[in-house]
Amino acid sequence: MFGKIGRNDPCWCGCGKKYKACHMAYDEKLKDFKRQGYVVPRRKLIKKPEDIEGIKRSAVINMACLDAVGEAIRPGMCTQEIDDIVSKVTRDMGGIPAPLDYEGFPKSVCTSINDVVCHGIPSEDEILEEGDIVNVDCSTILDGYFSDSSRMFLIGEVQDDWKQLVADVKESVQIGLDHVKPWMPMGHMSHAIDEFCQSKGYEVVREIGGHGIGLEFHEDPFVSYVLHEDEGMIMAPGLCFTIEPMVNMGRHDVLVDEDDEWTVFTEDGSPSAQWEVQLVVTDTGYEVLCS
Q1: What pLDDT does residue 1 have?
Q2: What is the pLDDT of residue 22?
């Protein structure tokens, strides 16, 4: 996991400094956490400064896609139109839609309406109606760097409790961000999200969560939102991942569409909401890279 490097050898991060002047103390800290039984990130999960800059460039496209969707989305629009917007903006700006053909996914973006938790497939037959809530989950590749974020959109006049769900889930993401502290277990963040959502009467989906990202679409760790405070990977500076709790107004149980094998629904038919941001842990907290 760590590999043996001499004190005066070049640091593994490629900065050109000697190991002792760069990441030696960092690695010793991780080794100490590992000895205590914690899960710690491998070196390949720690993003270098040039990686962070590459992810940020990719994120410019990703956020532009969601901005364009926000300007166009309306009642009577089919979700294929959302896919068309994301595909055009992404390619016009030099990027590649990450979902397209990923493990067989047929479209450039995910559109998840009402009781669809995630991975909704855009279609000309799926029409947005007054009162719907929809999650648009966008992911972009630029020069080998991956960015990922999603936003909720209210279609016309939405009933108050559904509107509140959307607002509360957005607040839960900020609560999670407030609990991203370097050298703390990921459960410190996850537990805060779950506790807040439970206080509102909601349940967080267990089977699907966030993920590491940057050089690949899905990297370690799996980011659960139902961890205890002392569980999960250590949030070491340089670790890049998403916070994207999927929160149901009813029970947390979900099921996958047997026909398309992608679309995830709430089992009880209750509405679900999700917001997603991508961040990197820093020496003092975090930096949001994509939102």
Answers
A1: 60
A2: 81
SS3 of 70, please? helix
- Among all chains, which residue has been given the structure tokens 């990922």? 148
| 3-class state of residue 92 by DSSP | helix
Asked whether 133 and 114 are in contact (CB, 8 A), the reply is yes
The residues that bridge with 127 in the sheet, in sequence order, are: 78
Order of strands, sheet of 203-204, starting from the edge strand that comes earlier in the sequence = 203-204, 246-248, 272-274
d(CA 163, CA 233): 33
DSSP letter, residue 207: S
How confident is the model over 259-282, as a mean pLDDT?
98
At residue 189's C-alpha, the angle toward residues 184 and 190, to 5°, is 125
DSSP 211-254: EE-SSSSSEEEEE-SS--TT-SBB--TTBEEEE--EEESS-S-E
The CB density around residue 257, as the number of other CB atoms within 10 Å, is: 14
The order of strands in the sheet holding 116-118 is: 116-118, 264-266, 254-256
Q: Does residue 97 have a pLDDT over 80?
A: yes
pTM: 0.95
- The structure tokens listed for 28 are 């010793």
Residue 259 has a CB neighbour count (10 Å cut-off) of 7
Paired sense of beta strands 96-97 and 133-142, if any: antiparallel
Q: For residues 140 and 108, what is the distance between their CA atoms, to the nearest angstrom?
A: 9
For residues 144 and 126, the answer to whether their CB atoms sit within 8 Å is: no
